[in-house]
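User: Predict the structure for this protein chain, please.
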Amino acid sequence: MARQKSEKVRKALLKAAQKLFVEKGYIATTIGSIAREAGTSQSNVYVYFTSKFEIAFAVFDPWLRSKVLDLEARVEAQETPEARLRTLIDGLIHGIAADGSGQTLTLVQALATAKAGDEYSPDLLLWTMSRIHQMIAAALPASDPNDREALTHSLMLAFDGIALRQNLRRSEIQDRLSVDALYMMVQAIIQRGGGGDPDRSTSGMH
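Assistant: Here is the predicted structure, written as structure tokens:
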């Protein structure tokens, strides 16, 4: 019974935090406001979480994993290497990094204002990079593993840049141009490594 009650309060806190992060932003949201929204005391919040930073990651983690898995399914459904790569790039950059719901914006603000005592586990980042690496491998099975690793890191850097721009609330660059630019980067890395043109190579595709 106690376990059920604890899980109920934890879920209420996460729901309240997600609502406030979207409405007010991470920085303006306080532990006190999360507690009030969840209908509990501020001291009770610390029974479940050590900081607002930890709450932000507890909210963001399942959202990001769900978005990445959805993207993976869309990538796998494409019939050509070009379509798979473009779907990956577009989904990662515009579907997640530039997400309009405020989820990625919350992450950026949390990381930007993190204090020395705020602990950050790399598990989510490593998992995300692993899934992206697998999507690249599915699109370019003949490519060199080192090239796929370079592409994974390059796409994550692009992700960070788009997410930061969202935080600064600057106007979006044209979707087509940004996807094209990143796709050209992919082609350059693959061709340099002898993996062939993804527009033409279809080996290993199903």
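The mean pLDDT is 84.
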